Amino acid sequence: MIRIKCRLVKTLKDNILSVNSYSRLLFNVRLQKYSSQNEKTNNTTDFAKIPVERIRNFSIIAHVDHGKSTLADRLLEFTGAIKENSGNNQVLDKLQVERERGITVKAQTASLLYNVDGEDYLLNLIDTPGHVDFSNEVSRSLSACQGVILLVDANDGVQAQTVANFYLAFGNDLVIIPVLNKIDLKNADPERVCKQLQSLFDIDPSEVIKISAKLGKNIDSVLKAVVKRVPIPIVNRTAPFRGLIFDSSFDKYRGVLSLVYVQDGNVKVGDTITSYHNKKSFEIKTLSLLRPQEVPVERLVAGQIGLVGCNMRSSKEALIGDTLHNSNDVIEPLQGFTPARPMVFAGIYPMDQSQHVNLRSAIEKLTLNDSAVTVDVGTSPALGLGWRLGFLGLLHMEVFSQRLEQEYAMDAIITAPSVTYKLKLKPTKQNLKDGTDYIYVNNPALFPDHLTIEETLEPIVLGTIITPDKYMGPIISMCMERRGVQKNATNIDNERVMLQYELPLCEIVVDFHDTLKTLSSGYASFDYEDHGYKPSNLVKLSILLNGNAVDELSAIVHITKAQTVGRQMVLRLRDIIPRQMVHIAVQAAVNGKVLARENIKAFRKDVTAKLYGGDVTRRMKLLAQQAAGKKKMRMVANISLPRDTFIDVLKK
User: Fold this and answer.
1) By three-state DSSP, how is residue 81 classified?
2) Has 127 been labeled as part of a binding site?
3) Residue 331 domain-assigned (yes or no)
4) Residue 66, annotated ligand binder?
5) 240-273: pLDDT as tens digits
6) Is residue 237 part of a domain?
């Protein structure tokens, strides 16, 4: 009986392998056919001569790990842009951090040539990130597109970021092509996922394309759908040149390279162009298409997306969303896009102040490639001169620090993340004159005295959680512990539920996502969007050392969390702060009321060790002198904390 079962299992495995091998073989046959056609046309085609009617601009949008980069690889192989089995997966994920983490961080562009009925079509593909922290990359990429491929995992189904990306594309009036990926997996259920798409987005199941990007199954149907469904870009090639900068990067030899969508006219190497907002003129040195490697061209025409090098040297000259035009023409600027608003703030300081200039240069170059990061100069008595950076989320902050280390070899100190609070001050003669009765604070050291504050407001996000229904209980409990307010609950199908909660931003920036994955065994997904400010009872938690406040260790917390956070802080400081010659009382206080206290004992010297006899009064006299000396030292001593202590506390 056991032998029969083993043979049956082996037969099933062999059949599965043979089916997958056959699917891959079919893809290879089609791939050789189309690649041979495209290899001939790649060398002979003048991209500028391709008419607008045969240009398509589209993006791939999806949730994390639904196969965007794999699909992009297959599209590149199928159109002959790269060779098959070259051993280079995730071709458009060029950053080291992307390959290490297995996620897309930067939107990347590739121009594909696809031959249909003997005519070459220029398909401009933009592969976008899937994580909520990089939604700014998605919104900027959609500004240069007329259609999107909405990629959904046939195994996991619709996830939180799928919903967010759909409405982002829908709000931009883009054509949406629904595609189901990973249909080769044994747990894939395309029919169930098609019903989810229909119930959530009103997508007809007959329009959904079912593919396997890993095996290359049905890839040609995706390309044909792009050619057929994505509309022609609305451009004017006879008008004066206008181009929209929607991304940029820095090359140490060529300076700033701007990724430009040409809306009107054309531009050639040697032309002089002007930035609309900066009013600065530049001579174009290089023009190129990304296929996905740079291919130099002499001219870019309306409808194309290309890389422009014109000796820009700083991030102030290359503004994302700016319009480039011919120097002698008076034009209307192109409609840009709403800049991203930072959600999480952190301080960054060099390990040594001698590295300040190098770190400043590295931050400027990196923010050129990541325009969502905001930079403000900041100082710290403990850490010296540094910057206050704003990020879209915690993962965004982690990726930025990792890129800073990998690409520029800068080892910097990044403090614990915080958010921006809104405070309404009580009327005074000064703010009645200038109307500044509201202030924004993201640094606890700048929090004003509680007697001058009339109302405190904290940022709120609208979070979307999609989870199997069996995990609803623990997830709802966690949201209530984080001061969440449930706004909506929708059944996607018989097994999955979509929950919407209003959550304070400060409660989700650190460990909310990790806790959610732990409670749901990895099956739940989370996405959030800005939902404004709401009144909240916020206080400044001050840390006192022997009664003296240390602003660098203070924090802004909700009144209900003050005692818990204060107890954790003093316990941590008790273990970190080195013992000194005087007794140190570590206290956490709110508005003058002490909530928690720990003591760090002083070093003690046995002053009676030299005594060998005599009257007891000699012993008592030495102990009294020591006590008086300790008392005097405590009155005049300033407790000096080592720099490493601040680093250990602020980084946690």
Assistant:
1) coil
2) yes
3) no
4) yes
5) 899 888 888 888 788 888 888 899 999 998 889 8
6) no
